[in-house]
Automatic annotation (TrEMBL):
It holds the Pfam family ThiS. InterPro entries: Beta-grasp_dom_sf, Mopterin_synth/thiamin_S_b, ThiS/MoaD-like. It comes from Streptomyces afghaniensis 772. It comes from the Bacteria. This is MoaD/ThiS family protein.
Length: 79
């Protein structure tokens, strides 16, 4: 799990390992480890799984590969 910008600040770490079969399970684990501000930030984030945007797909349908990377991207200002 790799955090960027406000997500990184709220998590207090730049990245951390996860054990999950789906994005929903991985995010449940993140919420359990980092209650509070990160939970609020995650509501506004978009996600990349191994470089591919998740978009509007249900997080429970997004499968994660062993050793893969989830990028947590809060909205960025500017363009």
């Amino acid at each position: 799990m790799r955090y960027w910008a406000a997500a990184k600040a709220a998590a207090g770490v730049a990245e951390e390992p996860y054990e999950a079969a789906t994005l929903a399970e991985a995010l449940d684990g993140v919420r359990a480890r980092h209650p509070g501000e990160l939970e609020r930030v995650l509501r506004r984030c978009s996600f990349l799984v191994d470089g591919d945007p998740v978009g509007t797909r249900g997080h429970e349908t997004v499968r994660l590969a062993d050793g893969g990377t989830v990028e947590v991207l809060p909205p960025f200002a500017g363009g």
